[in-house]
Amino acid sequence: MLSALARFSRPHTIIATTIQVVALFLIAGGSQVMSLASLGPVLLTLVTCLALNIYIVGLNQITDVEIDRINKPRLPLASLEMSMREGRFVVALTAVVALVGAWIAGAYLLGTVVIIMVIGTVYSVPPLRLKRYSFWAAVSIALARGVIANVGVALHYNDVYGGLAAFSPATLAVMAAFFFGFGLVIAIYKDIPDLMGDRAYGIETFTVKLGPQRAFNLGRIILTVGYAGVMAVAISRLPQPDSLMLLVAQGVALGLFWYASARVDPSQKASIARFYMFLWGLFYAQYIILSVYQVTRGIA
Questions:
Q1: Rounded distance, CA 60 to CA 71, Å?
Q2: Global pTM?
C-alpha cells in the first residue's frame, strides 16, 4: 500500500514542490535568519504545498483512470492496486490538510492554495475539464506551477519574515516568466508519450494536434528562449562574480538540454518518457542555481 501511495503522489512532482518551497525560502533571504524557530513556517508551508500537490495529481488520476489504463497502466488506480474509494479518500484528506495548513500559515499562502486548487480542479473535472484543450491545459499548468506558486510563496515568506526577503518586483518577474515558460514545456512534453490514450478519448493535446516531433520542437524553442532571457539578465549585471556564475550555469543547463534533446526520438514512448524525467531534473536544478546565486549575492 505504501508503494501505491508513493506512486499515487507522483514522486517527481513531490520532489519539485519540496525543492521549490525550500529554494524560495533561501532566495527570500532565509539564510540570514536560519534557526530552528525560523524553520517552523517553512515546514508548515512545505506540508501544505505537498498536500496540495497530492490533491491535484490524485484528482487527475481519479478522473483519468480509463485513459491511464492505456497511457500509464502502472499507476495505482489504473492497475487496481488502489481502489477508487481509497483514491478519493486520499484526495479529500489532502485537500483538507492543504486548506487548514494554509489557513494557519496566513492569508498569502491561503490565497495561493485556493487559487491553485481551483485551477487543478477545473483542469481535471467536468464540465470545464481544461485538460481537453491544448492551450488551456498548458496555461493552467504553467500558471499554477510557474507563476502562482512562486509569487504566492514568495509573498508568504515576505509576510512571515518581516519583509527581509530579497524578492524585488524584478526578481519575481524574472522567476515567474522563466518558470511559466518551463511550465509550458512540462505541459507539452508530459503528453507526448500519451498520444494513443489522449487521441482515443478526445483529449486535444499539442501532441495530438501537431504530432510528436512538432510538439517536441515547440518545447525546445520555448525553453531556449527562457534560458536566453535569464542569461540576458545575468549579462546585464556583469562583471559581478555572482552574475558570471549565473550566466555560466544557465549556459551549461541549456547546453545539456540541447545535448539530451538531440538524442530523443519523440515518436518512441520510452525515449520521450526518459527525456521528460530529465526535464524535471533541469527544473530542480534551476531552483538550486537561483538559490546559490541569491545566497552568493547576500554574502557579497
A1: 13
A2: 0.93
2-299: what fold?
A: Tetracycline Repressor; domain 2 (1.10.357)
**In one letter, which amino acid is 253?**
A
Residue ranges of domains in the chain: 2-299
- DSSP code string of 126-160: TTT-GGGBHHHHHHHHIIIIIIIHHHHHHHHHHHH
Q: Grid cell 552568493 — which residue? A: 296
Are 129 and 199 spatial neighbours (Cβ–Cβ below 8 Å)? Answer: no
> What's the gap between Cα 268 and its chain centre?
24
| Digitized pLDDT (tens) for each residue of the chain, 300 residues in all | 788 999 999 999 999 999 999 999 988 876 665 666 778 999 999 999 999 999 999 999 999 999 999 999 999 999 999 999 999 999 999 999 999 999 999 999 999 999 999 999 999 999 999 999 999 999 999 999 999 999 999 999 988 887 655 567 888 899 999 999 999 999 999 999 988 889 988 889 999 999 999 999 999 999 999 999 999 999 998 888 888 999 999 999 999 999 999 999 999 999 999 999 999 999 999 999 998 888 776 544
